[in-house]
User: Which sequence fits this backbone?
């Protein structure tokens, strides 16, 4: 279990990945994303999650470089976007992301969405990058069980991570259980429901009881379910607050209370109905 901000989970290929990281979706390229990443690294975060789609890889790379923290101490994730999927185009997109980030390798490279007719070839490109040592781990994002089962038919190598929308209103219990059985690390994007429903009575009551914020209660719930989480913020005080979740524990009954909030409600797109 995660004991502090430096705690890691071990992926099925032996690579260690921090339980808590900073997401930079919608963090503007330039000063905003640079300052957010620097604030996170100064706070003790060692995992940064970006994507080609976010158009802020250059700022992320610059912040990492200027932080003075050795590259090998930072776990860096980026993703191939839908329009770049396919074997050759994925390899090209990877090189472009790496150039923008200004790094020699990526720690985790993900397929952003399961684009039909393309994600198998995209996965084969990721396998090539992995075997060449250009990425330390490869995975998927927004994949349902049937997408992963399809991948299994064409590859001996299972994704090391599946990053999906995951929060108290979308607990995805079947997917979580499946990933645990397969040795795939589930990772939560939008863990704080894009700021919605943080005033839910269950969350506010638990926050009051533990002397924490509703957001901190949710992030702790993620970790106790064995889910890596990457809350996004560009404000230093919020980045610090999101990391202050290692000095308390939710009881099994409290975990059940939060689980009971589930409505199978998505704030993002459904992977099976995404307009690719």
Assistant:
């Amino acid at each position: 279990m995660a004991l502090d901000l430096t705690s890691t989970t071990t992926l099925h290929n032996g690579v260690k990945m921090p339980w808590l990281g900073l997401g930079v979706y919608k963090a503007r390229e330039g000063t905003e994303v640079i300052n957010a990443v620097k604030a996170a690294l100064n706070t003790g975060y060692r995992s940064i999650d970006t994507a080609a789609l976010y158009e802020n890889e250059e700022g992320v790379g610059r912040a990492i470089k200027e932080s003075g923290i050795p590259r090998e101490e930072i776990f860096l994730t980026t993703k191939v976007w839908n329009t770049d999927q396919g074997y050759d185009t994925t390899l090209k997109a990877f090189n472009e992301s790496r150039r923008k980030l200004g790094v020699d390798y990526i720690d985790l490279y993900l397929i952003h969405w399961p684009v039909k007719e393309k994600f198998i070839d995209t996965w084969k490109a990721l396998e090539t990058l992995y075997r060449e040592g250009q990425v330390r781990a490869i995975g998927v994002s927004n994949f349902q069980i049937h997408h992963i089962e399809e991948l299994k038919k064409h590859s001996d190598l299972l994704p090391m991570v599946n990053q999906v929308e995951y929060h108290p209103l979308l607990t995805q219990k079947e997917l979580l259980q499946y990933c645990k059985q397969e040795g795939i690390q589930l990772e939560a994007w939008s863990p704080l429901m894009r700021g919605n429903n943080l005033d839910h009575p269950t969350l506010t009551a638990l926050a009051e009881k533990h002397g924490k914020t509703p957001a901190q209660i949710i992030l702790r719930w993620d970790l106790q379910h064995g889910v890596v989480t990457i809350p996004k913020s560009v404000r230093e005080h919020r980045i610090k607050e999101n990391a202050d979740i290692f000095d308390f524990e939710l009881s099994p009954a409290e975990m059940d209370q939060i689980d009971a909030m589930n409505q199978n409600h998505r704030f993002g797109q459904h992977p099976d109905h995404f307009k690719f």
The domain at 8-259 is CATH 3.20.20.100 (TIM Barrel). The chain is about 40% helix and 15% strand.
